[in-house]
Fold this sequence. Notes:
Layout: H1 12-25, H2 32-41, H3 56-61, H4 64-71
Amino acid sequence: MRSPCCRRSAGRTNALVHLTAVARRLGIEIDLQEFDAIGRKAPVLVDLKPSGDHYMEHFHWAGGNSRLMREIPWPSRREVPHGRRSTP
């Protein structure tokens, strides 16, 4: 539960309500202060309402998710560990 994804995406307020409800049903306790602290450190990818300055239409008009994915400086394949084991 330490991922900043919900905190830094559109509709985060609603996402937190639903995440908390699902976690409670599964018997998982969410520390809201820790969730907030992690979210404050995460970069804002898309600044949308209700807490941001822009509307979803603006994001769509600017190219949406496909544009966002092109704009993110992804690490090269050489920098990302693959988790594959070599076999003898």
